[in-house]
Specification:
The protein is of the alpha+beta class and 50 residues long. Helices cover 38% and strands 24% of the residues. The model has no long low-confidence stretch (mean pLDDT 83).
Length: 50
Amino acid sequence: MASAEALSGVDDATKVVAIRFDAIDDTAAGFYEHHGFRAVPGTMCLTLKF
Protein backbone atom coordinates (compact mmCIF):
# COMPACT_ATOMS: atom_id res chain seq x y z
CA MET A 1 0.00 0.00 0.00
CA ALA A 2 1.34 3.48 -0.92
CA SER A 3 2.14 5.94 1.83
CA ALA A 4 0.38 9.28 2.11
CA GLU A 5 3.71 11.03 1.42
CA ALA A 6 4.19 9.17 -1.87
CA LEU A 7 0.64 9.95 -2.95
CA SER A 8 1.16 13.62 -2.11
CA GLY A 9 4.23 13.69 -4.37
CA VAL A 10 2.25 12.17 -7.23
CA ASP A 11 -0.51 14.72 -6.73
CA ASP A 12 2.01 17.59 -6.80
CA ALA A 13 3.64 16.25 -9.98
CA THR A 14 0.33 16.22 -11.84
CA LYS A 15 -0.10 19.95 -11.21
CA VAL A 16 3.00 21.00 -13.19
CA VAL A 17 2.45 22.53 -16.62
CA ALA A 18 5.32 23.75 -18.77
CA ILE A 19 5.93 25.38 -22.14
CA ARG A 20 9.04 24.62 -24.21
CA PHE A 21 10.09 26.16 -27.50
CA ASP A 22 13.16 27.11 -29.56
CA ALA A 23 13.83 30.82 -30.07
CA ILE A 24 14.63 31.94 -33.62
CA ASP A 25 17.53 34.17 -32.53
CA ASP A 26 19.26 35.77 -29.52
CA THR A 27 16.92 38.80 -29.58
CA ALA A 28 13.85 36.57 -29.32
CA ALA A 29 15.50 34.50 -26.57
CA GLY A 30 16.26 37.67 -24.60
CA PHE A 31 12.67 38.85 -24.95
CA TYR A 32 11.28 35.62 -23.55
CA GLU A 33 13.87 35.44 -20.75
CA HIS A 34 12.80 38.96 -19.76
CA HIS A 35 9.24 37.64 -19.43
CA GLY A 36 10.13 34.72 -17.16
CA PHE A 37 11.26 31.97 -19.51
CA ARG A 38 14.47 30.13 -18.61
CA ALA A 39 17.11 29.28 -21.21
CA VAL A 40 18.49 25.76 -21.50
CA PRO A 41 22.30 26.26 -21.58
CA GLY A 42 23.94 25.56 -24.92
CA THR A 43 20.67 25.62 -26.88
CA MET A 44 18.08 28.06 -28.17
CA CYS A 45 15.47 26.23 -26.10
CA LEU A 46 13.47 28.16 -23.48
CA THR A 47 11.04 26.83 -20.88
CA LEU A 48 8.39 28.26 -18.59
CA LYS A 49 6.89 26.28 -15.74
CA PHE A 50 3.51 27.13 -14.22
